[in-house]
C-alpha cells in the first residue's frame, strides 16, 4: 500500500528555517487582490511599507521554503501519485500577530492519516515559532484519490450545517485575469495555475486559481468588512475547498455574524453561484 499510516504519523518531523520581509508581505497582498483603489487609505495598509500590517493568511506562504504539502508527500510511509492529490481544506491558528518581517523555525509533520473509503486524507501540520515563541499552526488536508479502503479511522467530518437565515453581508470580489500569475510569485509554482496545456491534461479547460489565493481573498474581505480592517483580531481560519475558480471570474462572499466568529460561503458568480469555499469559519477577538 502506498500509504503506511502508522509509519507516516510516527516519522520524525522535518524542520527548516524560514524568513520573510516586508516585500514578501506586499507581494502576497497584491496576489490576493489588495491595492484597489491604489490610494485608498484602507488598502495602503496592505501595500505601503510605512503603514503595513500582515493579513494572517500570509502564513500559508511565509518563507515559501517551509515544510509544506509537496515535501510532506515524500515523508516516510507516503508514496503517492501527485496526479491523484487534491488540496481538500486548510486551517490556520494564530498564536499572535505575524510581524512584517522575521525569521522563524518551521516544523512539518503528518499529524493524521484518515481512511475515507475511496480516498486517504493526510493532515499535514506545520508549526512555526520565532525567538519569542509560537507564531502560527497551519494544517493542510490533502485528499489522495484511490488510496483509502484499508479499514483505518475515518476521522472527523468537516461538513457543517448551513448557516441559518440571510447573510449579514454579501460582497463581490473580481479576480483579475493575471491573478494566478501574480499569486504564484509568492512560492506556489504549480503549472496548473499558469500553463494551459498542463491544465488540460489535469482535466481543466484552462489554468485555475490557487485555492489558497481564494482563501486569502476571502479572509481579506472578512477583515475589511466585518472586523474593522484589524488583522490582529483574527484568531483562526478554517475552510473546505469545494470547487475551482478561473481567473477573470467574480467571487460572491456571503458572511454571517456569530458569537466570536464569522461563517462564510464563497461561490463563483458567473457559474450560477457554483460553490468555491464551504464550511468556512473565521474566529476573532
UniProtKB/TrEMBL annotation:
Coiled-coil boundaries: none
Region (Disordered): 147-166
CDD domains, sorted: HDE_HSD
Pfam entry (one): MFE-2_hydrat-2_N
Occurrences of domain MaoC-like (ranges): 163-266
GO BP term, pick one: fatty acid beta-oxidation
One Gene Ontology term of the molecular function aspect: (3S)-3-hydroxyacyl-CoA dehydrogenase (NAD+) activity
Record-annotated Peroxisomal multifunctional enzyme type 2-like N-terminal domain positions: 20-146
Recorded family membership: Belongs to the enoyl-CoA hydratase/isomerase family.
Name assigned to this protein: MaoC/PaaZ C-terminal domain-containing protein
Amino acid at each position: 500500500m502506498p500509504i503506511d499510516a502508522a509509519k507516516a504519523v510516527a516519522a520524525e518531523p522535518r524542520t527548516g528555517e524560514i524568513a520573510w520581509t516586508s516585500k514578501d508581505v506586499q507581494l502576497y497582498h497584491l496576489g490576493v487582490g489588495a491595492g484597489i483603489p491604489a490610494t485608498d487609505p484602507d488598502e495602503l495598509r496592505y501595500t505601503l511599507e510605512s503603514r503595513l500590517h500582515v493579513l494572517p493568511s500570509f502564513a500559508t506562504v511565509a518563507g515559501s521554503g517551509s515544510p509544506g504539502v509537496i515535501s510532506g508527500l515524500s515523508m516516510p510511509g507516503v508514496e503517492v501519485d501527485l496526479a491523484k492529490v487534491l488540496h481538500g481544506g486548510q486551517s490556520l491558528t494564530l498564536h499572535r500577530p505575524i510581524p512584517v518581517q522575521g525569521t522563524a523555525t518551521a516544523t512539518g509533520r503528518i499529524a493524521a492519516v484518515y481512511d475515507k473509503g475511496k480516498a486517504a486524507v493526510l493532515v499535514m501540520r506545520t508549526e512555526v515559532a520565532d525567538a519569542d515563541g509560537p507564531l502560527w499552526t497551519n494544517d493542510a488536508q490533502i485528499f489522495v484519490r484511490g488510496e483509502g479502503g484499508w479499514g483505518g479511522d475515518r476521522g472527523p467530518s468537516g461538513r457543517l450545517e448551513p448557516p441559518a437565515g440571510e447573510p449579514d453581508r454579501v460582497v463581490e470580489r473580481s479576480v483579475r485575469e493575471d491573478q494566478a500569475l501574480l499569486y504564484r510569485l509568492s512560492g506556489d509554482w504549480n503549472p496548473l495555475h499558469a500553463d494551459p496545456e498542463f491544465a488540460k491534461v489535469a482535466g481543466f479547460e484552462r489554468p485555475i486559481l490557487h485555492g489558497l489565493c481564494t482563501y486569502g481573498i476571502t479572509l481579506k474581505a472578512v477583515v475589511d468588512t466585518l472586523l474593522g480592517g484589524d488583522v490582529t483580531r483574527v484568531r483562526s481560519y478554517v475552510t473546505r475547498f469545494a470547487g475551482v475558480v478561473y481567473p477573470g471570474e467574480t467571487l460572491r462572499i456571503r458572511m454571517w455574524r456569530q458569537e466570536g466568529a464569522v461563517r462564510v460561503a464563497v461561490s463563483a458568480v458567473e457559474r450560477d453561484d457554483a460553490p468555491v469555499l464551504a464550511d468556512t469559519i473565521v474566529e476573532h477577538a
